[in-house]
Design a protein that fits this description.
The protein has about 90 residues and is α/β, with parallel strands linked by helices. The protein is built from 3 helices and 6 strands. The longest helix has 10 residues, at about 15-25. The chain is extended, with a radius of gyration of 17 Å.
């Protein structure tokens, strides 16, 4: 049976990865990062910076929107948030 983890971080976004890196500096601790997205290594659009526009509203995106923003005349604002893993 595998040894248990000392820390489990849900979400491999910017904050999750920074937290995992800092916690893992103590070599006596085991850290697990869970990410909901699948592996991105097959998508050329993720590998090249020019492909970022093709990722909007795709399977690699959570497709979040705000509720009517006052500064945008009540329109919803699309928030691109990646849903991939680098492993």
């Amino acid at each position: 049976m595998a040894e248990p983890y000392d820390y489990i971080i849900c979400g491999g976004g910017l904050a999750g990865c920074v937290l995992a890196e800092r916690l893992s500096q103590d070599e006596s601790k085991r850290v697990l990062v869970l990410e909901a997205g699948g592996s991105d290594y097959k998508s050329l659009f993720i590998r090249i910076p020019a492909g970022v526009l093709r990722l909007f509203r795709s399977k690699y995106d959570w497709q979040h929107e705000t509720g009517g923003e006052k500064g945008c005349n009540g329109r919803n604002v699309f928030l691109q948030r990646g849903k991939v893993s680098t492993v």
